[in-house]
Please model this.
Amino acid sequence: MKKLTVRAERCTGCKRCEIACIEEHSGAKSYGTSVKETPAPKTRIFVEPVGNRPLPLVCRHCQDALCVSACMAGCMQKDPVTGVVTNTGHEQKCVGCWMCVMACPYGVINMSLDSAGTAQAVFAQAVKCDLCPKRGTPACVEACPNEVLGVEEIEEGVYQ
Amino acid sequence: MDFRTCRSAPFDELSEAMHMAAVGDGMETIYERFSKQQPQCAFGSMGICCTLCTDGPCQITRKAQRGVCGASADLIVTRNLLFKCAQGTAANVYHARNVARTLKAVGEGKADYEIKDEAKLRAVAQSFGINANAPLKTAAKEFGAFFIDQINSNDYDPMELVRALAPKKRLAVWEKLGIVPGGPNSEVATALSKSMTNVNNDVTDLLLHCLRLGIANEYAGLFGITTMQEILTGTASPNEGPVNLGVLDPDSVNIIMHGHQPLLAIKVLEAAGEKKWQDAAKKAGALSGLKIYGSLCEGQQIFNIASQYKDVFFGQIGNWIQQELVIATGAVDVLAFDYNCVMPTLSEEFAPKYHTKLISTDKVIRHSGVERLEFEPEKAKEIAERIIEEAIKAFGKRGAVNIPKIKHNAVAGFTTESVVSALGGSVQPLIDAIKNGSVKGIAAIVGCTTVREFQSGRHIAGLAEELIKRDILVIGAGCCSSAMQNNGLMSADSAKKAGKGLSSVCGALGVPPCLSYGSCTDIGKIIATAVAIAEALGVDVPDLPVVASAPEYMEQKAVADAFTAVAFGLTVHLTPAPPILGSPNVVKILTEDVEGLTGGRLFVEPDTGKAADAIEAHIMKKRKALGIKG
Model:
């Protein structure tokens, strides 16, 4: 299956990957206009400061994914063919319990929340990396100016 | 030191207490905003992000060694640096122009200011052919007008200020390099033209232009500001006063004068001394009347001359990072600010929360919703009284007051003249102390404080303490002075923290081992002191056992000042690293090659101990070259 690779020492913290991720998962496919969409598109890759260095945090699409086990509605699933862990296609079942967010050991599941001006959440959905199924190379990998992010094909369950 | 913990909190205990209180009140301060900005993009911090044209923004990356226009990393870094240097020069010159305008108005009899330092005015006026026997007012008018003309002169004619005032040895070096500047406004405009898209790709020429701006910054900016302000406000003299957030009195109407230009502040101080205003404050319920405080560089300038205003000036609040914290005490009735170092959150978040009335007093600074009482030399007194009136009104609207209980003192008010008079009339005793090794050398620790890396003052106080232990005399200016004052390095008893030699010299002269020269614009005075010592020794500035250091440099004026120091041949320690690391060539030019041209250079060292080692090594090298015993 496809996996994202990270050469953390090259990361400059420019966050172009976050912007590319937001664009790819927005209706407008453009950062400038996508921020006005409802619900606002959220990044699924996170550049965080770790020990005074930027570090891109990416989904590992785990073999025994804890987010899948934690999902009570059954929308988070691991595709048996591609190996991609995603709730795409089953999002409507998401109740916004955020157990996947709690369970993820890498902290890479984001919460898309829209209260539409009311006190109650009218839209609540977990969003996470889906390895950009509509593109050959994930958007973040293409956007990375310093070749920090890469994608490689690995055989699942085999440690290299 | 645990890096992560020191990032998230201020350094001195009073700021720490007020920070916790502000956070407890639900406020977001500069510390929280800094954390939220992490990580910050390294393309910007290395200077290899160019946003000039719409073909960009371009960054120099592993994939792309040139921007769309073809600019290399060297060119992008240099253009970005030249911008910053031009902006800093422009700001200092703007300040100088305001002072010159006031001096001219005083000379014309339109502004109600005394000429407090007649000898200084006569001396500078005479260097430019203004008749020494002319009436004092005429000399003020002519020198003010001459200075404004110099600011507006063209860059194709070398500035007379430089020709007349520069030490001969320096002038020869600058002439050889072709960097004697013309009028600063014209130089800034040329710098901006040179750094436009597709104009100049000669990195050396652009960097030499930075040095030209540095020299213009000194003479048309720093020198002018210091000299003309001292003519109007009186020359600094050593005095002891309270410092840091604990100085505020809960029982008085409190006015803070914040910013960089002290001319309005002295009018406020004069008015505050009048009985009618003190009575009005007491009538409003303030038991201890009306008190005026200084904040950041404006405060340092008032502190320098505070012996004139003992009954109304009650202390120096602190450095620029403390401005939100001081409002959070709830005890500030009016904060009047002029240009530079005023956070947008003061008017948008802090003043509404804590009752403080903000007043802006300079035309370049505008905060929406904030009352403007813009300084005009002719209307200074009227504005000062309005400020006091507003403060008395605001006093009645106070909510909870929370002032840290700790109080401490510091000594300020040093300048070339006051150092010379402390030394008994000449720089000779200092030279003797340097020669016999009880003072190894001098380090000027100047400039801003930053929340990056060492959290507002940690690096400054750490470095100063390390240097005085090694018998190196420290001169502070700007927010660095505040950081040293807040950490007890400028108090009368701080000599005990110094090494044996330095502490005996300080004991004999009755001065602290870290001398405050005042605001960041008083860096010009430090250069004047260095020039005075060099001339007394008959050598050039680069030969002196002197180092300049900006250990927490933050904004553009500091970039211009760094180039001023390099043009004068000083070795300059800078931290954090300026945005030049994306170009190894520019780094090499500024840290090595330039030494062969002006005698000065930059070096970056974020570790306090290693920085002190490097400064000491440089001083020892220069001592040896001068033939003074190690």
